[in-house]
Every structure is written in C-alpha cells, then in structure tokens.
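FIELD: query
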Amino acid sequence: MARTDRGRIVIISSPSGGGKTSICRRILTPARRRAGWTFSVSYTTRHKRPGERNGREYHFVESEAFARLIAKGFFAEHFQVHQYNYGTPRQPLEKVEQKGGTIILDVDIQGAFKLRQEYPDAIMIFVLPPSIAELRKRLKRRGTETAEQRRIRFERARQEMLAYDQFDYVVVNQELEVAAHQVLSIIEAHPCRIERVKKEQIRSIIGLA
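FIELD: result
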C-alpha cells in the first residue's frame, strides 16, 4: 500500500547534547541497517574530535575549501554553527530521490529547516534530552570545550529545544537503545501514514474502485 517509487530523506536533528549522532550510529550498525540505507556525511570546518575519522562522521575541510564548495552550489544547505561551518552535500540527496533508498541525515536545527524547504517530503525527527539537567551533564561530559564554550552551547541548546513542534516526530533520548529503536520504528512506519498511501489502491481493496 505504501509508495515505493521514491526514496526517503530522513532528517534527524537535536540541540547539542540531545544524542542525534549516537542514534544515527545505532540505527546504521550492520545489525540494524536496512538494505538501501545510507548516511549523509556532512562537511565541516571544525577539527576532528578524538575517535572521529575523516569521511565517516564528517568530511573535514579548511575554510577556504568550504567557501569554494559553496560557490559551486555543492551544498543543499550550509550554516555557521558555534563558529564553524557545516554543510550537507546535495548530490546524495538527489540520487536517493531519483533512484530510491533511504538516506539518514544528522544535522543542526537550522539545517533541518532549510532542507525541509528543499525537500518537503523529508521525514523530520527531533531528539530531545530527558531534562535540562541531563543536557548540561552531557555537554560537560564531552570534555572538548572550555567552560565558556559550554555555556554558550548550553544556552543555544535551550532555545533550540523550543523548536520541537516544528518537526513531524519527537523522540526523548533518555535511554539510547530505546530512542534508537523508536527512530527506527518511525522510519519504517512512515510510508503507512495516510497521506503517503495510494488512495486508489485502498479504494480497490475495500471495493470502492
């Protein structure tokens, strides 16, 4: 009953510390990854964090190279976040739209809204931390920023949490495994939403065609 002629663009967003990146990693492990699912690797001008690898979490580039990509129209969206630039390459999204499959995006809230303008059929999932106190703990636990940088990031995150009602779905990330399962269920069930189903097929099933 669900449409299968077009690919799915899945936008997963959250404030800093919400856990969107960890959830993306969980749902794309070999045990969970479905056939035809890919991950959109963004470009950024920030430095690699411990354990990150170029081309896996991000494509890490210098500011000059990022500017050249902007000039070429390479990005579907790009923004400056916390003094660094981030951008989503356009080509992988267009490939999925044309040939099918599912692409998962891990993007900032600004980027999510820009992508919704370009790809209105995208599935928008917002990830929230279970509480403000837990959000503060997660940001501190990273250990990659100064106290002032954490303060700025925390205040921005508090404001970003107010955007939850502009998304299609909200997942509260209290336990990572549970949250990952909920996101996976959303993606798989989304084609069954009434606006995504072929009405003529339904009418035929119930004898109205």
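FIELD: remark
The mean pLDDT is 90.
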